[in-house]
Amino acid sequence: MTELFSKLYSQLEQNLPFVIYSKPNDHVSNGLFQQNDTLHELESENSSGFVFASFYNDVNYIIPIAESELISVENTIKEVQYNEFEQSFTQEAKTDFENLVSLFVKEIRSGSCSKIVASRCEKFELKDFDVEKSFKRMVYLYPTAFKYCFFHPEIGMWLGATPEQLLKVNNNEISTVALAGTKTINELEKEWGEKEKIEQQLVTNFISESLEPFVDKLTLSEPYTYQAGKLLHIKTDIKAILKDNNHKDKVVQVLHPTPAVCGFPKDYARDFIIKNEGYARDFYAGFLGEWNFKINEKHTTDTDLFVNLRCCKIEDQVAKIFIGCGITEDSNPELEFIETVNKSETIKKIL
């Protein structure tokens, strides 16, 4: 992987944009290195490159293939070193988030919505951040996730290991997932609770109903338990055929943000989050990935997008870690906070 990181360090020295990433269950890491510092907005569904979109869907950027060098290398990582750590948090952070969850539960019980996703941002002090080591740790520790490091001088550096696909398009065939509910690997034998089952069914129903106007032959798998690092989720695989190949952009618009990262009904939940969450999510819970990327025979997929979860933004020697959980009328504020603490381990382990 030497070639990939040599180019990465060259880009950083010149303050030029890049993204490096490795797909789930793939043995290859890819890098797209932009040859200028222009900040390109995603303006056309005919654009081609790596897209990086915000949660609010108001700022969507792209590193264009036409202005970049593409490098793909085999992952040769045999093992990595990382330090175990004890989870810690402030009482203020715990109290603030539990109060937020209580507010969301009250709103749901009023009948205005059935789910809202609450999130928070935790600052994690870094001693000697090393982007190469962090990326290699992600590749080694989270083989089933989408791993990435994105940099643009006007956006900053983001990295993450997300378990959730937003949309995959191959010709007119599309696939996505409904992912919700969380428990730790230590609770593997424990049955899923009614709260988690309802939460996941909400996501499945929303995606299915949103896709119907644009697709034929919609099929859903049975829900199953999916492992992401030390966490478990309920997952349903969804596949369909596009009625019109030009509907891809519309499908992205109706899916994002899904109830898994926003809530239901989507517009009401998003407005309530913006009004009450108390900070800007920025690119957390947005989406990212390959957009119109069929550039040669090796790249068989047109578009491959993921939800930007389990992620952080690096600023100086501080990582801003973004973590959240789905809230329903039966949510327990303390348990929801513990869920965010467990989720933060994904990023802390690679930093």
UniProtKB/TrEMBL annotation:
It catalyses: chorismate = isochorismate. GO terms for molecular function: isochorismate synthase activity. Residues 94-343 form the Chorismate-utilising enzyme C-terminal domain. Its EC number is 5.4.4.2. InterPro entries: ADC_synthase, Chorismate_C, IsoChor_synthase. Keywords: Isomerase. Belongs to the isochorismate synthase family. This is isochorismate synthase.
